[in-house]
Amino acid sequence: MAGLAELEARMPPADAMTEPAFAPSFRMTDRLRPDAAAGGGLIRAANGTARPHYWGHRERLRTRFLASGHGPMPEYELLELLLFNAIQKIDVKPLAKRLLEAFGDLNGVIAASEHRILQVEGADRWVYLQLRIIDAFAQRMAQAKVLQREVLSSWDELIAYCRTCMAHRGTEQFRVLFLDRKNTVVADEALGTGTVGHVPVYPREVAKRALELEASAVILVHNHPSGDPTPSREDITMTARVMAACEAIDVTVHDHVIIGKDAETSFRASGLL
After folding, report:
1. What is the pLDDT at residue 26?
2. SS3 204
3. Which contacts (CB < 8 Å, 24+ apart) does range 140-143 have?
4. N or C: which end of the chain has fewer CB within 10 A?
5. Residue 224 to residues 111, 131, 147, 206, 240: CA-CA distances in angstroms?
6. Which fold has domain 147-266?
């Protein structure tokens, strides 16, 4: 596996990266790789200049996206658009399809770990970097609809944010939303990351952080990588322990939400609180 330093060393100098005459509406930021000759034959432009067939494909795909938006486009083409920034001067359609085959859909691709991404033929750390950037944008956009807002008026956005962050993770994560006396979300923090079926939770740490943030209530959230949001016996026991620690400092546990792949379970709505 190529290291990041090695990948950077393979990039051409900035002054070697020029804009081709056949694609005036997009600047070429493509980094030439040793395997740049791969991916198909050449197409000869009207001026006699020969160019790889996939350069025209990239221009056409970008133009179609700008003209009609992402609605009509299949997932593999949206993924191609993203991969253009990571892999240059070769056809990325086969890689886009391999990634979707490996992880099911765009959500699965974007949430996949570096180790799993690098196991897909043709993917490298540049690909993983682009996926992490998109993931970070999605989380920040969803988080902006939640922070500093009153929970009851933004519950759907809160659930959507939690799903964006956690629904497709391959390991369990435990998050806590801290609320003030007006039930406004003042902080959202991941306080534990575990394995496929377990995440360590320390009730005293939850209570300690609530004190530091001067929170008056919390909402607990964690995901089930299996996709089934049904609470386990361990989930119920852990919730009771966190509630006891929080009650000792006069902090209320409003809810514990378990995020599955396609649904979620609220302890309060289920009568478990």
Report:
1. 36
2. helix
3. 143/188
4. N
5. 14, 22, 24, 20, 19
6. Cytidine Deaminase; domain 2 (3.40.140)
DSSP string for residues in 63-105: HHHHHH-STTS-HHHHHHHHHTTTS-SS--HHHHHHHHHHHSS
Q: Say if pTM beats, i.e. exceeds, 0.85.
A: no
Domain assignments of the chain as residue spans, ordered by start: 4-139, 147-266
Q: Is the distance from CB of 158 to CB of 151 less than 8 angstroms?
A: yes
* Nearest to 40, CA basis, from 50, 31, 30: 50
Q: At what angle do helices 233-247 and 203-212 cross, to 10 degrees?
A: 40
The tokens of 219 are what? 């909402």
- pLDDT tens, 188-216? 888 877 766 677 888 999 999 999 999 99
Which CATH number does the domain 4-139 belong to among 3.90.1150.10, 1.10.150.20, 3.30.1030.10, 1.10.260.40? 1.10.150.20
Helix 125-144 and helix 155-166, axial crossing angle in degrees, nearest 10 = 170
Residue 142 amino acid letter? A
Phi, psi of 72, deg, nearest 5: -80, -5
